[in-house]
Fold this protein.
Amino acid sequence: MSAPSTADAVRRGERWLHVLTPVVVLAVAAFIAFWRLDQANVGADETVYQRAGVAYLDGDLSLNPEHPPFAKLLLGLWQAVVGPGIDSARIAMGIVMVLTAAVAFLWIRAAVGTASAAAASLMLVTTHRVVGADFVDRQVLLDPFSILFGLVGLALLWRWNAHRQPWLAAIAGVALGLALLSKASAAAFLIGALVLVPWRALRQAQVWGSILAFAAAGIATCLVVYAPFGGVDAVASMIAWQAEHAERGHLVEIAGQTYRHAPWFAIAWLGGETVGWLALVAIALAAALGVVLERRLRAVLAIASAGAAAAVLLSASPVALPHYTIGWLWAPLLLSGIGIVALWRRVRSRRAGVIAGALTALLLVGPASGVVHVLSVSPTGVARIDAAMAADPAPDGAVLVLQLSRHVARPNIEAPFVEDPGADGVTAVAIGNDLRFPADPELVLLLERETQPVVLDDVVLYLLDEELDELLAEAP
């Protein structure tokens, strides 16, 4: 009687594990997505996309034509229901983050197994990916939408590959179309889609029918969404704007040096800055193991191909910004979870166990840092200027911002701010660490000599007893 009882107990345990594992993954994802979501500084692009979504629903389709409209439309619809504002839009981003974890878990569980799915999705949501003041996924950006729809499209194509039902291919085409309509860089997912095409079966009419259904659904989706915005002309204008932007360049700091046109290694460097160099090395090693040890699985190869294509695409671009890292890091994070589980499954000796344990410990650096960040996130630097000025007994005036982008200052400083040292009414000077906009060293020396600085994280604030123009007039 004991053998059947033991087998029954094992089966019950497996069923509970099958149910509880996704619950735990979603609970962790929800914690990372929503805890203290309103505390972080407002990113430079957040207000652009948040306001564009509201404007679209109000009939003004002219805002932010340099990027596809669908993600902003979703943000507008969400704010129409919940209410406008950055906090409201960030809740939408949290939902996108949880949905992305759910899609990754369900797909990888079906393809590789529950343990790999849990490790991959948890690596994706918990690993430290802070740009500016918060997780890049929690900021109001377009990339999280494109990654969500891109993963949905690849998962559906993987499912179609097993069942060859044209309607699955058509829905996958819609999903990948929506990914492209959220951010143009989602074109990298099409490379992953190529891996999922059964090339040896192209002689079958059903396969060609599915491919045509996929393409037709994707193209139709793009045409329908873009129609109110000007259709093909709007797409051509977007491409022209992006080409001009690439030629014009964008200031970015890489390895302590400011570039207008980013070097080829910029996106890799920004990835190391975003997740931490030690964590990035561990992620790369575990991701390589995922590809090598699970190389026969189409799902793994599709993820790897899409991620590699995104990395190449972003590296080739002369414009590289810190938040672009989300556009390629999702793939090595998923693969690292798959790889570490595959490694443990092959441990047969103490030495192999030590190696697997060491890599696991290194891999956990990223998630540990991510959880600590979410637990402690609060306004930093530029977002603390208003409170510091309010606490000063001297009358408030304008604040001069130096070594700070106006796009960072505008959504985080309520007090009037200027960028010209000769402006009237300046009673405070805030100096950040953005080396793209260097401050006059003589002015900094004068401020250090005449007043005590207030250090606000990465911003130094000088509160003046008199207006700055008077101080400059009195200076020798």
About this structure: The longest helix spans residues 2-34. Residues 192 and 302 are 4 Å apart (CA to CA). The chain has a mean pLDDT of 91. The beta strands are 130-131, 134-135, 252-254, 257-259, 398-402, 417-418, 426-431, 453-456, 459-463.
